Amino acid sequence: MSTITAVSTPNAPSAIGPYSQAIKAGEFVFVSGCIPLVPSTMQIVEGGIEEQTKQALTNLKAVLEASSSSVGKVVKTTVFLKNMEDFATVNKIYEEFFSGSEHKPARSAVEVARLPKDVLFEIECIAG
């Protein structure tokens, strides 16, 4: 059986519940849902969907790097939106975020009734 290791970094918001920022299992990294909290204040970034998406992706990148992985190694993401009307805006920011990768990760995007702390955007991923 492969080694399972919890990942923690001060460069991303600390977990706000009984979970890890990420888990390394063998060669894979499973990143918990990242929401747009500013790590230093643990407050939601000011602004709307653009600012929240960018902050959550910044947090995702920090956890990936703390896991000895990177954005370019992401194989699957799941995006949670408060409002599917924000999809085009989020998709543009998402595309820019992954533009340096040699591939586009597999992805699911769903609208949900409510997200933690009533944020507008959350993303989780699996990376190599």
Automatic annotation (TrEMBL):
<dbReference type="Pfam" id="PF01042">
    <property type="entry name" value="Ribonuc_L-PSP"/>
</dbReference>
<protein>
    <submittedName>
        <fullName>YjgF-like protein</fullName>
    </submittedName>
</protein>
<dbReference type="GO" id="GO:0005739">
    <property type="term" value="C:mitochondrion"/>
</dbReference>
<dbReference type="InterPro" id="IPR006175">
    <property type="entry name" value="YjgF/YER057c/UK114"/>
</dbReference>
<comment type="similarity">
    <text>Belongs to the RutC family.</text>
</comment>
<dbReference type="InterPro" id="IPR006056">
    <property type="entry name" value="RidA"/>
</dbReference>
<dbReference type="InterPro" id="IPR035959">
    <property type="entry name" value="RutC-like_sf"/>
</dbReference>
<dbReference type="GO" id="GO:0019239">
    <property type="term" value="F:deaminase activity"/>
</dbReference>
<dbReference type="GO" id="GO:0005829">
    <property type="term" value="C:cytosol"/>
</dbReference>
